Amino acid sequence: MKKLMISEWVRWVLLALIVITSFGLVPLGIFALIAYVLPTIFVFMHGSRFLGKRNIVLFFVVIFVVTYVSEYLGVHTGKVFGEYYYNTMNNGPLLYGVPPLLMLTYFSMAYSTYMVVRTLLNKFEVIKGWMIVAISVLGGLLMTLADLASDPVNSTINRVYIWVDGGVFFGVPYMNFTGWFIETFIFFIAISLIFAYLTKSPKLSKLPSKKFTFEPIVLFAAPVLPVILHPLWAKDWSSVYEPMSLIALFGLGFVVVLATTVNFTRLSVKR
C-alpha cells in the first residue's frame, strides 16, 4: 500500500511539472527535452498500473512504429500529410528526416486521448466488437482536433516543421488533418485489437478509482491550457493565436470538462 501511495505522489508531481513546462517556463533547450521525457515517464507509470507492464510497452511499440512510418512516408512522399519537412528546432536529431523524439509526444498524446475516451464511455474492462471501432474513431477525431488547435502555431510561427506550399487552414494543408485522422485511427484500432483478442487487457478485479482515471485527463489538458491562454500574454502577436485559442477552449476544453464530469460522477471503488 505504501508503495502504491508513493507511486501516486510521483505521478502527481510529474503531472505538475508537465503542466508547468507546457507554458515554456524553463530554458528552451532544457524545455525541449523535458517536454518529451516527463509525459513519457508518466504514461509508463500510469499505463503499467492500468494496462499492465507488457501492454504499455506494446502500446508504445505500436505508436512508435505506426507514427514513424507515417512521418517517414509523409516527409519523403508528401502523400500522407502534404509537403513538409522538419528542422532541428525543438526536435532533436533527425533520423531520415524524422525526429524520433516526436514519437514520444505521439505516445503521451495517444495514451491520454485513449484514457479520456474510455472515461467518456465509462469502459474500463476488456473492449471487444463494435466498441473497438467506436474508441478508434473517437480517439482519431479527438487527436485530430488537438492537432487542429496546435499545428498552425507549431508550423507557421514556431517553425518546428515547415509546410512547403502552405495550406487553407492558417498555412496548414487540408490533407494534414485527414492524414492525422487516418494515422491515429490505425494505431488506436491496432492497439484495441491487440488488447481485446491477444493480451486481454486490462484485467481489472475492480474499477480504478476516480482520482486514478482523472490523472490522464490532466495530462490531456496540459498542452491545451497554454493554447487557450496564450493570447493573454502573447508579445509576438499573431492573428493565429486567437482562433487557435477558441478551438482549444470550445473544442478541447469542452472535452476536458465533460470527461472530468463523467469521471467524478461515475461509481467506482479504490484501486
Question: What does this entry look like structurally?
Answer:
With 271 residues, the chain is mainly alpha-helical. It has one domain. 68% of the residues lie in helices and 2% in strands. It has helices at 2-22, 28-50, 53-77, 102-121, 130-157, 174-197, 210-221, 224-229, 241-265, and strands spanning 84-86, 161-163. It has a two-stranded antiparallel sheet. The radius of gyration is 18 Å and the shape is globular. The model has no long low-confidence stretch (mean pLDDT 88).
Tell me the distance between the termini. 10 Å
Number of DSSP-assigned strands:
2
Strand proportion, as a percent range, falls in under 5%
- The side-by-side strand order for the widest beta sheet comes to 1-2
Return the domain count.
1
* Number of DSSP helical runs: 9
Structural class: mainly alpha
Calculate the mean pLDDT score and round it: 88
Question: Helicity, in percent?
Answer: 55-70%
Gyration radius (Cα, Å) is: 18 Å
Report the principal-axis shape: globular
Order of helices and strands: HHHEHHEHHHH
Please describe the biggest sheet, giving its number of strands, its sense, and whether it closes into a barrel: 2 strands, antiparallel
Q: Uncertain spans, ≥5 residues at pLDDT below 50?
A: none
